[in-house]
Design goal:
Blueprint (H helix, E strand, L loop, with lengths): L5 E10 L2 E11 L4 E5 L6 H8 L7 E6 L2 E3 L4 H6 L2 E4 L11 H5 L16 H14 L15 H13 L5 E5 L7 H16 L3 E5 L3 H7 L2 E6 L2 E7 L5 H9 L18 E10 L3 E9 L3 E5 L6 H9 L6 E6 L2 E3 L4 H6 L2 E4 L3 H5 L6 H6 L3 H4 L7 H14 L16 H15 L3 E5 L7 H16 L3 E5 L3 H7 L2 E6 L2 E7 L5 H8 L3
Parallel strand pairs: 3-8, 3-9, 6-7, 7-8, 13-18, 13-19, 16-17, 17-18
Antiparallel strand pairs: 1-2, 1-4, 4-5, 9-10, 11-12, 11-14, 14-15, 19-20
Length: 498
Amino acid sequence: MTATSVEFRNLSKNFGPVNALVDFSHAFAAGEIHALMGRNGSGKSTAIKILGGVLQPSSGEVHVGGNPVHFANPKDAQAAGIATVYQELSMVPGLTVAENLFLGDLGAVRGKAGLIDWGRVNRLAQDHLYRIGVDLDPRCEVSRLSVGQQQILEIAKAMRSDPSILIFDEATSALANREVEQVFKLMRDLKARGVTMLYVTHRMSEIFEIADTCTVLRDGRFVSEGRMSALSHRMIVDQMFGDAEIARKPARPNLTEAPAVLSVKGLSRSPQFEDVSFSVRRGEILGIAGILGSGRTEILRGIFGADPTDAGTVTIDGTTVRPKSPLQMKALGFGLTPENRKEVGLVQAQSSHSNLCMASLRKLASRAIITREMERPAVDQQIRDLAIKTGDPDSPVSTLSGGNQQKIVVGKWLSYGPKVLLLDEPTRGIDLQAKRQLFDIIWQKAEAGLSIIFVSSELEEILEVTDRVIMLRHGRIVAEAQTQDVSLQDLYDICLGE
């Protein structure tokens, strides 16, 4: 064991009656990239949060460099040479690259009279970025960076403490393939410098490209570990899920004669998208395919009235409007599950119960009075119908796995009963089984007559889930096809076209 290795010894973590980790023991060799895989609720996020000082174990030990450690908080872990890059971007968009790099540590760059020496801040930031091989202008405002560049900046910020151990927690889940490769290049450079990395992802293909080993957890317990060169996709999936059954796409009906529920005409918002027109039939699942920045999310937000539009109309069941607010569009029968569930889709400090009721309080209330007893039948129904795993519905939703949180985002709108449900990146950061469960829910609701628009960065999901797909490039629709008539290569070629 070298000075930069990590070892968990009989590690357990309990959240009340829920055992998130159970007697987990494993050692990670130094200077390598280690994939940590498992379905939602497997314990992998709990393990890395303990290593990062966010959580403390109920029992067991963590060893770093052969020595036992105990971290009361992330600052303790950082002092021991451990840094974490999380799924959610934490940069302040209105500040520059240099300002974000030194945010929280400006005391180290004060000049005379205690004032911050901004020239020195920029010079130190430039030196740091150059040292780790990152090509970013320290004076550039973060809001002008692409998502991939912001994620690289997150890594650069984590590297300011010169860690020997770097943890990636779903750090590429919102990135396109080209941006992922930028991150991987930086990871390879860090590996060459001797940095040990623990890499958590639900994108199976990534670990075969970047990882040296793969460790699998299931139900909080260690299952297996092996060199990537000796593993296959099927082997890892079998280890992750055991005998768990996953949903398969049912035969979908021919909807060419079904009535159009939604019609979008000439919708524009410069410079994000322009002259977007399409329709969705009753019970149809329409996919919107395109790379990051093509306007997918912006179109959904425009339809829902979350962002103002420059032109165009939306018609639902014969009523034509210019979207002006979510409240207006919700009243017409729209629901939107946003791509960022943590900040926009859920109130993390509130309970699962409260989150499930948020979109349907007026529907549940009688004479503007609402009680927990009135809410409970709707909550119980969604927990049952969506198979949401929550030990206590009154516990904060933040205690749930990503897959169960996503089910609550969907369940919140199903309680309301929309005519059209807009799903923006509904599988982001959730495991294969949770995805299959969510797909099954989507197919069931469509079969019952719900019209759905499905957006995903993973084009494979578009083909797997939807009935028809429209393809975007630079904010414009460039093609449309029945899903059964288009190949994955076709999608990539059209969406990435010149």
